[in-house]
Design brief:
The chain is α+β, with helices and mostly antiparallel strands and 145 residues long. It is 40% helix and 21% strand. Bound molecules: zinc ion.
Length: 145
């Protein structure tokens, strides 16, 4: 009786071993895919960065600072880029206080392209920008990348 119950178990030891090996391989592959994105964008404060996010970009101009602040949520900023990614669709709304300079629009466009500066100062904007990994991953596989 004992023999027969052992041989009727769902998996034999080598099947468990094969299953564990397969799971380990999947975990290793997932880990490899999660390597940090090492790309940087130089001169992002002056020039366009590569469009990695490929978001649909909409630009809105505002005459009232209060309206802009209510949208952007920061009294210090004259512009912001609000990005949303859902079901591999990315939308980026740029809000600017009129009159907006070309460098300011370029700055917000670079956020829409998937880039971030670390710190909030002209010096920080002049340093290389990093990709927003969360957004890029949420966006998923892109055409041509
Ligand atoms: Zn910024």
């Amino acid at each position: 009786m004992r023999q027969s119950s052992e041989s009727s178990t769902l998996f034999k030891w080598w099947q468990w071993a094969a299953l564990l090996a397969a799971l380990l391989l999947i975990l290793l592959a997932a880990q490899f895919a999660r390597q940090p994105l090492s790309q940087v964008c130089l001169n992002a404060d002056r020039a366009p960065c590569p469009d990695i996010l490929q978001a649909e970009i909409r630009i809105r101009y505002h005459d009232s600072k209060a309206t802009l602040t209510s949208i952007c949520g920061d009294v210090r900023s004259n512009a912001c880029a609000l990005r949303r990614v859902r079901w591999h669709q990315a939308v980026c709304d740029i809000h600017l206080l009129r009159p907006a300079s070309a460098p300011l629009l370029n700055h917000e466009m670079n956020h829409c392209r998937g880039w971030e500066h670390s710190g909030d100062s002209p010096e920080a904007y002049a340093r290389p920008w990093q990709l927003n990994e969360h957004l890029i991953r949420a966006r998923g596989r892109l055409r041509g990348h």
